[in-house]
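seq:
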Amino acid sequence: MAEIRTSVTNLEDDKVRLEAQVPAAEVKKQVDSTIRSLGRDVKIPGFRAGKIPRQVIVSRFGLEAVMSQALQDALPGWYEQAVMQANIKPVGQPDIEFDEIEDEDSDYTFSAEISIPPRPKVGKYTGLEVEKDVAEVKDDEVEAQIDDMRRRVAALRTVEGRACASGDFVVIDFTGSVEGEPLEGGAAKDYMIELGSGTFIPGFEEQIEGMEQGQSKKLTLTFPEDYRPEDLAGREVVFDVEMKEIKERELPGADDDFASENSEFDTIAELREDIRSRFLKAREDAAEQVFRARVVSRVAADAEVEIPDPMIDSRAHELEIDFINQLQSRGLTADDYMSQPDEEREKFRERFREQAVASVRQELVLNAIADIEEIEVGDGEVEQEIRETAEYTGQDPEKLIEKTRESHHLETIREGLRRRKVMDLLAGKAIPVLKKAGQDAGEEKEEEPKKIITP
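struct:
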């Protein structure tokens, strides 16, 4: 599509007036497309569908009707392109002023009065004191990780003379029945499970605990209400179980031999230090992300802005769609969500709306600060972001760049990077007030919380 010439005039009450001029070549192209479309749909004696001459179509429908249809077909796309080229972010529906196409060989102009996002009145956004969690790793957490590694490589040793307990591996035969009829897929021989792993429905493993080798037992259980397949949900089931063997883990020692055989390190001390440093790095990164979110939330809360309902409604709808997509990634469907009682869905929608208000508010404030600080994002930075995405997703960088350009999403990426720069600025100019885990922000302390002053 040829480029549309645009001009924008700022109006009062967060509105702009967009003037757009469509080149004559694009107008003629659209009129020709409309005539071809009409030719495919109409039947005229003596002509095959799609082969009807242009002048016959115009004669059949009338030039005025053809021009009107062409405008109806083209105007939404022309408006959308003009808005993108002018870098306008519409709020709600525009008020478009237009005339009919009179001459397909001449430029066509139209205008639109468009509501745009409000500009917040930003408060103080530098030098703010904001809580930041202290990243810590306790010794017992490191030992728990080593114990987990030891369990993964532990040998299983058969034990006799005692009852099984949680943590044991047991070999069983079992058969299940519902109302006296065999349960499909509910029987197995020499089946090994780890007690306490939650492999079976609630109550199965718990009732097996305490059984000894050679003992048989009848278990009466109930399928959970959300069980799949649904015809078994909430129904009673009986399992006949025979305990055939009990095994326990034989853990290797937490020593240098274990470290050298099961890691890249020669000593257990080096392994412990690696675990501690990896845990600490992950928690420091998480603490930094939470700190940044707190800073942005604080700055947004101090700003003054009235958010139009259409912006909130649109963002809330996006959040609901994202939520449904997440459900589908977990094996659920949109119908599972839509079939909920009205009051449950209303609770979700209220939550989405609350999140939408916070999200839009922060976005508006970040954009306003970007304008104040004259923060810009170059084309090279946008392309680099796309290249990194391509590398992460295994796509061809050049093809993804071109695809993004064709879908007019380059500016969306640019805006996201611009807001990220603002968040970097805000976090860098905030004063972290360190807080240890479990420490209440409002509780009295023997000494003042430590502040990190950054330039």
